[in-house]
Design goal:
single chain, alpha+beta, 2 domains, eight-stranded mixed beta sheet, disordered N terminus
Length: about 160
């Protein structure tokens, strides 16, 4: 088979289109990391209801964090579950079950010592439980990032 110049152009154009589609699809499946923050807190109580479910009560220091601001005590009712907005087959950059369990163990060590630990959020890391209780939140996963425990709720 002999290729004419116009067939070669079609071949290159087809490959170029394929490359563009592959690169574009990479942007669709690559998780993005949204902003977040953490502040030093004291772990007052960590009750584990199961391997992954917990209730955490911390005492934030004086800060300007949008979640902790105005809370003398900050309560998190959490578990390990699919992040809100997440596709069923993809963790979208959220914590793994192993990372979540490790973060709970890390927090428990600070409950025992009374020393401060950096605690915060990534993306929309918490969801308020009840507007009448502005310092009580839900979390769907924890992860240790740069020595801080951060919460995830919604896909970042």
């Amino acid at each position: 088979m002999v290729l004419a110049p116009h067939s070669l152009r079609g071949c290159f154009a087809g490959r170029a289109l394929l490359c563009i589609l592959l690169v574009a699809s990479g942007f669709l499946v690559t998780p993005a990391v949204a902003g977040g923050s953490w502040e030093p807190v004291r772990v007052l109580k960590l009750s584990r209801n199961s391997q992954t479910a917990y209730t955490l009560i911390v005492e934030p220091g004086p800060n300007n964090d949008p979640y902790f601001k105005g809370c003398r005590r900050f309560e998190v009712r959490g578990t390990f579950s699919r992040l809100e907005g997440e596709w069923p087959i993809d963790r979208s950059g959220g914590p793994s079950k192993k990372e979540h369990i490790a973060a709970l163990g890390y927090l428990q060590s600070f409950e025992r010592t009374g020393l401060p630990v950096n605690f915060g959020w990534i993306g929309e890391g918490f969801r308020i439980v009840d507007p009448k209780k502005p310092c009580t939140f839900m979390s769907r996963g924890l992860k240790i990032v740069d020595g801080a425990v951060v919460s995830y709720f919604h896909v970042t």
